[in-house]
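Reopening: Translocation protein SEC62 still failing for me.
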Amino acid sequence: MKKSVGAEKKRVKRSSGSASTSVRDSGSDAQPRKAVKKDTFQLFAEKVRDHKGLESRWAVMEQARVEYFRGKDFVSFMKNNPDLKEILEEDKDLDTDDIANVLLGKNLLVRCDRVTKTLRPGKKKLSTWPAHLEIFRDDQSFSENDAFFAWTFEKRHPLWQTLLSFFWPVLTLAICLFPVYPHRCKLIVLYSCAGILLMILSLLFVRAVVFGAMWILLGKRVWVFPNILAEEATLKELFRFWPKKDEEEPPKWTSRLFYTAVAIVAVMLLRHHAPDEAARARYQRRMSNIIDDVLEWSPKLALSGLMENQQPVNITDAANNSSDAAGPDQTEDADLDETQGEEEADGWTDPDLKP
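Support: Ran it again with your exact input. Result attached.
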């Protein structure tokens, strides 16, 4: 009986110990799960920033480039995309102003203001998207009336940018190995690059001509493909053809007349100093020779050229070089010795001097 009672006590202790360890394990598992759970407002901010519906721009704020948006655009964006609030889970019923204030409180956003607050000469209102900003230190609360908000966290890079970062070294190596390409590959690369460069220059020239003609004739500032030279733009924005409405003040007729005269004089000078047919043919021949030299070069030709340019070693030339290296004094002494030897030989052969 005593043994059975002792065994039951041991079993109770073991069961209680195993239960306590299981509780500890469950508690230790629950803590990491809570720690791993990401902030819903952080997820919401990343989702909103990656969304194309919220219009944003890049600017310089305290010597750093930041991406910012306007308060009124954020309000309209949330009205058009109410499903994004589902990311907030328990806080999905908050208003737009409250959500923005929470983002400001978590330092995911910062309210900023334009640096230049005065009108420039010839303009009726301030720039819609200023290029230089500063932190608005008076009040860090949300407002949709002429208020700007910049993202403070680093944006995640998409997969194509990561792949592009690995592709650039390969492209650099391929450019360095261009001289050893086969002739056909060189032709393909040359004409492809020349065609792309010609297309870019032609597009920029057409943009300038259209802008000048519209500005002189109608007083309108029209840039076709307005974002073609933008630093930060998506593919859709980059190849947008028609610009937005011109909000600036139309130019004066005196300035339009002046630039019309300048354009006419420039065209007449270019036409007067244009190269003739012979000069054009000469330039074309010269460029063709340069291109042929680049395309036809190969390491074999370079090595064969080096071997052909090496002169064979000649013993006579080596002796002459050694005599030249002896110096002018030693050369003069040798010439005097030869002259005295010749005079003595002539003296012995003279019949008057014979005994």
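The chain has a mean pLDDT of 76. If you still see a failure, please send the error message rather than a screenshot.
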